[in-house]
Amino acid sequence: MDEMKMVKELRNTMPEMPSSVEDTVRRGLRGLAAGDRPADRGRAARRPSRRFALRAGLAGALVAAAGVGGVVALPDGGGPVPGTSPALRLVSATELGDRAAEAAERLPYKPPSPKQWIYTRFVTASGFDMNRPWEGVDPKGRETVEQWERADGKAGAEIHAGKLQVTDYTANGDQSDEKRPAFHPGNYHTLPTDPDALLRRITAEVGPNDPQGVFDTMSRILEHPLPPKLRAAVYRALPKVSGVGAERDVPDAAGRRGVAFARTDHLGDRRSIVLDPATYRYLGTRHAVARTRTDKVGDRTVTYRAGTVLGWYAHLDQGIVDRPGRRS
């Protein structure tokens, strides 16, 4: 078995591992393998098996590699690493989904009336230029936004230049009722709370050949207040979407670090849904380039470099209010 190959496969959505780090990891794994010497066999009953030692060493190698390559994208499967905190024991999207669902099911919830409003305050990274998307956002720039959305999904509001602007989604125009997402606060109550049924429902709407679209739809749903059973179903359905894994130590736009569901699309862009590592509360999303690629923009060739952040969103506050413009 080539343990170094296993390390590379587990890191296949991350930037290239420097050769110096690769050498260090390889020496550590060889050292673990060499530990099964004849003179040690008498102590076999008192020490872990070679397979367990290699597994633990592999986990340690991944943690060390994370220090130079960013977050560790972990595939679905495997068991916990002994002696670590709950967040560091995370090894699969399924485990993350179950933990987050159990936490969601314990949350208190009072559904808003149809004419009440959902108030959300969030922060995003600024500086994105639609004419130069390969440059991403400004890693240090931030913009705080306040939005209101009517609980029946029929209207929204936002503060622009210090003034509250209300939009009727059922009126004609660019933001008419037909332009809204298929799933919104006005119809969340119609969604099934069984994870498999929920996945089938969203897939039927988005399309069977668009797992990234399914992932993004679930991400948008999580931005709103939800009945506990529906939020739990989303968390348990996410690991069932093709290509979804788990990440550790993912930063959000507010500077908090969490665990995340993550998926890398066919272009090499990774989208992450970030949760608090202790409470599994929804924190926000991150969109970054996982693999360097080139693309054509008009008559020029541009490069999207690995690590470039394309979008960053962090949830700061949310509540139910009686009218737009109110915060409590």
Automatic annotation (TrEMBL):
Membrane-spanning residues where? 52-74
Superkingdom classification of source: Bacteria
Matching entries from InterPro entries are given as: CU044_5270-like (IPR047789)
UniProt keywords, alphabetically: Membrane, Transmembrane, Transmembrane helix
**Protein name from the UniProt record:** CU044_5270 family protein
